[in-house]
Amino acid sequence: MKEKVAVYPGSFDPITYGHMDILHRGLRLFDTVICAIATNIEKNSLFTVPERMELIRESINGDKNVVIDSFDGLLVQYVKRVNARFVIRGLRAMSDFEYEFQMASMNRNLNCDMDTIFMMTSKDYFFVSSRTIKEVASFGGVVKGFVPPAVEEALNRKFPPR
């Protein structure tokens, strides 16, 4: 039987427990999930791509069913290149759905063999975003419980306690 591979794309700047929730639930559906860091030149990232890859690596605790990678360009091209057929996207709110629906529709138009799977983020993390985490950390707020310990430590290095 052919292995079911899904791509979970995102900036993961940094990875949060909301991302981890979607990743772990994706692993119940797929044999392998590729956590693919999208490099977006328009975004000012706090962490470099290698830093983000390492933070994800430390957060997944050696799970052999998770592949960590990065890509630039179109997601449909990346999905085809890694021989996947599915994309996992997490949704927190209706505003996420509108944007994600447009992207999934365009991707499906560009590659009719690709399917996007939407997963609602757990109620414990629906309000957590990387942007919010960075903002809280930058003002000396506590992010424990919202990000894995390695991310918390990395944020403390970027934003030393006041």
Keyphrases for this structure?
Rossmann fold; 162 residues; alpha/beta; globular
Structure write-up:
The protein has one domain (5-127): HUPs (Rossmann fold), CATH 3.40.50.620. It is of the alpha/beta class and 162 residues long. It contains six helices and five strands; from the N terminus they run E-H-E-H-E-H-E-H-E-H-H. The protein is globular, with a radius of gyration of 16 Å. The mean pLDDT is 92.
Structure in a nutshell:
The protein has helices at residues 17-29, 49-59, 75-81, 94-110, 130-138, 149-158, and strands at 5-10, 32-38, 66-71, 86-91, 115-120.
Biggest sheet architecture: 5 strands, parallel
CATH topology description: Rossmann fold
| Computed Rg | 16 Å
Structural class: alpha/beta
Distance between the termini: 55 Å
The SSE string, one letter per element, is EHEHEHEHEHH
Shape: globular
Describe the secondary structure blueprint for this structure.
Elements: E1 5-10, H1 17-29, E2 32-38, H2 49-59, E3 66-71, H3 75-81, E4 86-91, H4 94-110, E5 115-120, H5 130-138, H6 149-158
Parallel strand pairs: 1-2, 1-4, 2-3, 4-5
